[in-house]
Amino acid sequence: MSSVKISTTLGDITVRLYDETPLHRDNFIKLAQEGFYDNVLFHRVIKDFMIQTGDPESRNAVPGAQYGTGGPGYNIDAEIKPEFIHKRGALAAARQGDEVNPERRSSGSQFYIVWGQIYNQGQLGQLAKQMDMQAQQAIFNQLVAERRSEIMQMRRNRDQDGLMALQNELQAQTYARFQSMPNKGLTDAQKEAYTTVGGTPHLDGQYTVFGEVVEGLDVVEKIQSTKTQRGDRPCEDIKILSTQVF
Questions:
Q1: pLDDT(102) > 90
Q2: Nearest to 67 by CA among 239, 241, 243, 210
């Protein structure tokens, strides 16, 4: 199992990469060995949420500029595993949103490290309900997209009865698909992690988690606590100095 030491201007962070996500593991190792991340900024930092880096365009950063669209010129197929969750210290791949990236393919280089928060049982229960609602909405949106041409034709024909019937049909299909999902709600492992270690549970199942911090969580805490400006960029630049694979 490979590890990478990420040396930053605020200290060192060592991450362990999961063998169960080989595409992300091998890509991260390749970029780290090539020095791809050297002098790249932590361009997006949100307190009690996460820190993000990996945009090569931030290497020669201009004061006040916003970053987050750069990469190596390719994406990586999703390797979303239910057992790898967004607990504090999780290493995950950034990506474009579902509306332009329904396959949830990862950025070729940008990644984030989770900080998040610790939840009590009541907060976690409410969050689980919200996550279920989001899952149902995502299913419904997908079904609508699959029938878009039919919907547009009904709208052109001003067929309100047809549209209502189709909506009822899609809602029934949404409920059926949701009920057949194996991972509704939060697992015992998620509940344990988010009420003790902390993290960002609403991201689970949405992004590929491919490793975790094994040393330097205090450095992550310092970075996520830094003062930021417009666009969530730190007021004082925080950089990756070098990466070492071992």
A1: no
A2: 239
In the numeric block, the tokens 């999780």 are attached to: 90
- Token code pair at residue 160: 């309100």
For the stretch 138-180, pLDDT in tens is 899 989 989 999 999 999 999 999 999 999 999 999 999 999 9
If DSSP codes are grouped into helix, strand and coil, which group holds residue 172? helix
**Residue 232 DSSP label:** G
Tokens for 34, please give them.
């090539």
pLDDT on residue 21? 98
What is the pLDDT at residue 155?
95
d(CA 218, CA 8): 12
Quote the strand ranges of the chain, DSSP E. 3-8, 11-17, 44-46, 50-53, 75-76, 90-93, 106-107, 111-114, 209-215, 240-245
pLDDT tens per residue across span 224-240: 999 999 899 999 999 99
Q: For residue 104, what pLDDT is reported? A: 94
- Going 92 to 135 to 44 to 120, the CA torsion angle's sign is negative
How far apart are the C-alpha atoms of 19 and 40, rounded to whole Å?
26
- Among 95, 89, 108, CA closest to 6: 89
DSSP line for 191-203: HHHHHHT-B-GGG
22 CB contacts (<8 Å, ≥6 apart)?
Answer: 79
Q: Residue 150: helix, strand or coil by DSSP?
A: helix
Residue 116: φ, ψ to 5°: 70, -155
DSSP letter (8 states) at residue 109:
S
